Amino acid sequence: xxxxxxxxxxxxxxxxxxxxxxxxxxxxxxxxxxxxxxxxxxxxxxxxxxxxxxxxxxxxxxxxxxxxxxxxxxxxxxxxxxxxxxxxxxxxxxxxxx
Length: 98
Hints:
The chain is built from four helices and no strands. By secondary structure, the chain is mainly α.
């Protein structure tokens, strides 16, 4: 799996959050930018905790569909807090898959 494929998986997960926001808030929904530089954790975070769980779960499922079993909630992942941004999540996934 290459970085572009991982980026596509993360963007697909962000799209799931956008779909949920549209379902909840309609056309007035504040949609996430489809950009890996957005923050998941910290003062600049653009998602709440439930949306972060949705993103991580979707990424895990999409990786599994591609034949990669990666648990983003295992002790090592949680201790490292690798997903402060989409870019950091992409790097973490690439490191774990290599």
